[in-house]
Design a protein that fits this description.
The protein contains 7 helices and 8 strands, in the order βββαββαβββααααα. It is of the alpha+beta class. One FE2/S2 (inorganic) cluster (FES) binds next to loops. One FE2/S2 (inorganic) cluster binds next to loops.
Length: about 190
């Protein structure tokens, strides 16, 4: 790391912030004083796993997890409807729990395991087939959020009652009114697990 002051280039040590006049000087300092230390992560760098794939990415403090997944990593299955934590369409699974990616900062996700609808589809989870069979979507915009919420439920409770299914989906809104179909699909998927 270097910086220019009054026309002079100075080198700042990334470990202790001492500065040096030349590259040779900072090199010698690091070899002598910090030989066994790992290079500190640049600010904003996070590591996380999404659908089994490891990512190391620099994020801005205001980025949401939704923005990271959808806009930066191109996993467009996750949808944004309200952007206010009210509709559930942006639901993803984080460390086994259904969470709202529009209300979660990306910077908070360092070290986390994330699962999106793409990962659920790639694993051929029975939910996918049952959702199609039971016509659980009209415009389909809310559907990924429902599928992800259902997957989080079945991971914890593979044989839920209809009441438990309805409770697990209580945070998901559908403007097309597909509500009656979801419990049917989820209960059928549960039989195949
Ligand atoms: S878009 Fe996140 S809850 Fe509605
Ligand atoms: S299927 Fe259109 S919003 Fe749910």
């Amino acid at each position: 790391m270097n910086e220019t002051r009054n026309g002079l280039t100075r080198y700042s040590c990334p470990y202790c912030s001492n500065t040096f006049d030349s590259f040779e000087a900072i090199k010698s300092h690091i070899i002598t004083d910090h030989k066994t230390e790992l290079l500190p992560e640049p600010e904003g760098m996070i590591k996380l796993t999404i659908n089994g794939q490891k990512y190391k990415i620099r994020v801005e403090p205001e980025w949401t997890l939704y923005y990271l997944i959808h806009d930066k990593l191109g996993l467009t299955g996750t949808k944004l409807m309200c952007d206010h934590g009210a509709c559930g369409s942006c639901t993803v699974i984080m460390n086994g729990r259904a969470i709202l990616s529009c209300m979660t900062l990306a910077i908070e996700c360092h070290g986390k395991q994330i699962e999106t609808v793409e990962g659920i589809a790639a694993a051929n989870h029975p939910l996918i087939e049952e959702y199609v069979k039971h016509h659980c979507m009209q415009c389909g915009y809310c559907t990924p959020g429902f599928v992800v919420a259902a997957k989080a439920l079945l991971d914890k409770n593979p044989h839920p009652t209809e009441g438990e299914v309805r409770e697990a989906l209580a945070g998901n809104l559908c403007r097309c009114g597909t509500y009656p179909q979801h419990p049917k699909a989820i209960l059928e998927a549960a039989k195949k697990l």
